Amino acid sequence: MNLLSLLIYFSSLPFITMVPFVASNIDADREGIIILEGKYQNKNIYVSNAFGSEGYGYCTYEIRVNGTLITDGINSSAFEIDLNNFKLQFGDAVIIEIRHKNGCTPKVINPGGLTPQPTFVAEDITIEEDGFLEWITTDEFGSLPYIIQQYKWSKWVDVGEVQGKGTPLTNNYAFYVEFISGVNKFRVIQRDGNGKMKKSPSVEITSLMPKLTYVYNKNDQQVIFSGKTKYELYDQFGAIIIRGFGSTVDVSELVKDSYWLSYDNLIENFVKK
């Protein structure tokens, strides 16, 4: 009997039902993915691996580094993604895909391991009378923003930002700053993802701008400065209530109380009556 005759014969039997074959979805519980993207910093990535939600096996089932599959060592409660095996150079782009089962999530212990570190060397920093702060750097190994800071109100205040070029050769930068009356002090800093900070030397210049004053117009509920200035208004607990730039501050929404008013290069007590 040929194959066709056999199929006809078995399909004619009353106790057999012909059911189409459907492959089971073996990846139904593999739905999660964590993606880390950054630059190689001569560091490996460490992962704390949870158990699978079904009660056996581990959560992570696949890891790819720049598209290359790695499986060694992931079947444990903690493992290391060894980037040294990929012959990467410092600053090379890295994309890590951590695929895990549904219902559980592994934890990356050092997620900032691919974040550029502040490595710059400030070769020179100057401030000109026209208000341009200029600085020259070398040894940048990753593009991080430069935060321009001005010392006033007894603290360093962020006043601007310039994106770093991230190259180890000589880099030149400039940023226009607003002067306050008297001595003006500036510097630039970089921060990494963990809050680590690297700073340049500070530079000073004395401004001939007149010192500003203010009056409180109770009828209009306004603080009026003698010129435009950046300002911050704090409550007695040090929380910032209002911050801005201009020659007036609307204080109509404030309750009657005592506050601290920072403007120009001054910190003064302000009482709303």
Structure in a nutshell:
With 273 residues, this protein is mostly beta strands.
Textual characterization of the structure:
The protein has 273 residues and is mainly beta. The protein folds into 3 domains: 32-114, no CATH class; 121-207, Immunoglobulins (Immunoglobulin-like); 214-271. Helix content is 3%, strand content 48%. The chain has 1 helix and 20 strands. A hairpin with a 5-residue loop joins strand 13 and strand 14. The longest helix is centred in the N-terminal third of the chain and has 9 residues, at 3-11. The chain is elongated and about 70 Å long. The relative contact order is 0.12.
State the main characteristics.
273 residues; five-stranded antiparallel beta sheet; 20 strands; Immunoglobulin-like
Number of helices: 1
Mean pLDDT: 86
What is the CA–CA distance across the termini? 108 Å
Beta-strand residue percentage: over 45%
- Helix/strand/pairing class, anyone? mainly beta
Task: Summarize the helix and strand pattern as letters.
Answer: HEEEEEEEEEEEEEEEEEEEE
| Rg from alpha-carbon coordinates | 32 Å
CATH topology of the largest domain: Immunoglobulin-like
Dominant shape: elongated
* Major β-sheet profile: 5 strands, antiparallel
Reported CATH architecture of the largest domain: Sandwich
Uncertain residue ranges: 1-29
